[in-house]
Each structure stands twice: as C-alpha cells, then as structure tokens.
C-alpha cells in the first residue's frame, strides 16, 4: 500500500482511523496492537511529508474494545505529533 500511496503522490492524506482491527476488539478478528497502529501512522505521515507538505487529516472511525481503543488512539495521535515535530 505504501509504494502505491507514494506513486499516487496525494496533496493531502486523510486517514480513516479505525481501531477495530485491534487484537482485543470483538469485531475485527485481527491481531493488531497499539504498536502496529503507531507504525502505520508513522509510515503514512512520512508519505504525507514527502508528497503533501505534511498535510494529514485523521478521522476516528471506530473500535469497540474501549481500553484498546483508548490506547490505540493515544498511540496514533502520538505518532502524528512526532511526525509533525520532525518535519
């Protein structure tokens, strides 16, 4: 996905930040952790820095395990803040 995103070279990146893929979420059936969400956020923000002047919009879409959601959102926002600080 990341090479295709770079090739597309967006002028702004919109992240649909859904966290129902977390391993603790009853609906997602996937095995992601907060570290996974932070990693992908960092990678997407890097593409935004390269192609879009760092312009990123993140919209919270979901997550149903509330403790996991809180930790995942915190990791996501921290990754966005770190990316902005290093631009």
UniProtKB/TrEMBL annotation:
Name used for this protein in its record: Histone deacetylase/AcuC/AphA family protein
GO biological process terms held by the UniProt record: epigenetic regulation of gene expression
Ranges where the Histone deacetylase domain occurs: 2-80
Pfam families, A to Z: Hist_deacetyl
GO molecular function per UniProt: histone deacetylase activity
InterPro entries: His_deacetylse_dom (IPR023801), His_deacetylse_dom_sf (IPR037138), Ureohydrolase_dom_sf (IPR023696)
PANTHER family from the UniProt entry: HISTONE DEACETYLASE HDAC1, HISTONE DEACETYLASE HDAC1-RELATED
